[in-house]
Design goal:
The chain contains 4 helices and 6 strands, in the order H-E-H-E-E-E-E-E-H-H. It is α+β, with helices and mostly antiparallel strands. The radius of gyration is 35 Å and the shape is extended. The model has no long low-confidence stretch (mean pLDDT about 75). It is about 20% helix and about 40% strand. Strands 5-1-2-3-4-6 form a 6-stranded mixed beta sheet. It has a domain at about 105-155. Strand 3 and strand 4 (about 195-205) form a beta hairpin.
Length: about 250
C-alpha cells in the first residue's frame, strides 16, 4: 500500500525531468550552428522575480531653508554634481575580490577505564562454584571489567577567489533615506560562449567617488553573479540524468 505513492512520485519526477530536458534540448537543437542570443534589454521591474526593496527607514527629517543662503540642503558642492543620485542615473561598480580562507582543525580524545570486583564470601556459594569449576573460579577476582575508547578528527578547508572587473549599473530605485538601489548586467559574447555579469544592491550616495564609481565592498545586500552559457558551459556541466541520479541516489 505504501509503495504505490513512491512509484507514482518517482514517475512524476522522471516525466518532469524528461519534459525539462526535452524543452532545453529542443531549444539547443534550434540554435545548432548559431551563437547564443542576447537577452532583451528591458526594465528590471518587469522581469520575473523582481521585487521592490523595502528596508527599515529612519524618521523623516524636514529640510530647513535658510534665507539668502547659497547652500542647497542635500547638496555636496556649489556646482552641479555629476555623480549618480536619481533613478535612471548610471555609475560604475568596481569589483576587485581577492579572498583567501584557510581553516585547519584537529581533535584527539582518548579514555581508558578498568573495574575489578571480588566475591571472597557470599553465603558459601563461592565454595559451590569451586566444586563445579575447580580450575576456573577465583573468588578474589570474580569480576574484571575494562574499556578503552579513542577518537581522532581532522578537518581542513582552503578557498581562494579572485575577480577583477568593472560593470556599469543603473539606479533603479531611491529609498526614503536617499540610499540608492542599483542593478547592472553585462553580457559579452565570444564565438559561441556568452559571459554574464550581474550586480545588484543598495548603496549610499556618499560612497560614490568623484569619478562616479563605487567599490563592491560598499554595496549593502550585494548580489554578484559571474558565469556563462554556451558550448563550453554545456561541456562543463554534468548531464541531466547524472544530476538527477546524484540527487535521488541515497548511497
Amino acid at each position: 500500500m505504501t509503495a504505490a505513492p513512491s512509484v507514482s512520485r518517482l514517475t512524476a519526477l522522471a516525466l518532469a525531468a524528461a519534459l525539462l530536458a526535452g524543452c532545453n534540448a529542443g531549444s539547443r537543437l534550434a540554435n545548432v550552428g548559431s551563437a547564443p542570443d542576447f537577452t532583451r534589454m528591458e526594465t528590471p521591474a518587469t522581469q520575473d522575480g523582481y521585487e521592490r526593496i523595502r528596508m527599515p527607514m529612519p524618521a523623516p527629517q524636514v529640510a530647513t531653508m535658510q534665507p539668502a543662503s547659497l547652500w542647497q540642503p542635500g547638496s555636496r558642492a556649489f556646482f552641479r554634481d555629476q555623480r549618480a543620485s536619481d533613478i535612471g542615473d548610471i555609475l560604475t561598480v568596481v569589483i576587485e575580490i581577492d579572498d583567501r580562507a584557510s581553516i585547519n582543525n584537529q581533535s584527539t580524545r582518548s579514555r581508558n577505564s578498568s573495574e575489578d570486583a571480588a566475591l571472597p564470601a557470599f553465603l558459601g556459594y563461592e565454595a559451590a562454584l569451586s566444586d563445579i569449576l575447580p580450575d576456573e573460579v577465583n573468588p578474589a577476582g570474580l569480576v574484571d571489567f575494562g574499556s578503552s575508547a579513542s577518537s581522532t578528527g581532522t578537518g581542513q578547508i582552503q578557498r581562494g577567489e579572485t575577480i577583477d572587473l568593472s560593470v556599469a549599473a543603473v539606479v533603479v530605485d531611491q529609498l526614503p533615506n536617499n540610499n540608492l538601489v542599483i542593478y547592472g548586467r553585462q553580457e559579452v559574447r565570444v564565438n559561441f560562449e556568452v559571459r554574464d555579469l550581474e550586480i545588484a544592491g543598495v548603496i549610499r550616495p556618499e560612497d560614490i567617488t568623484s569619478a562616479n564609481t563605487i567599490t563592491y565592498d560598499k554595496i549593502a545586500e550585494a548580489r554578484i553573479a559571474y558565469g556563462g552559457r554556451g558550448t563550453i558551459s554545456d561541456v562543463q556541466q554534468p548531464r541531466y540524468g547524472q544530476q538527477i541520479y546524484d540527487i535521488i541516489f541515497p548511497f
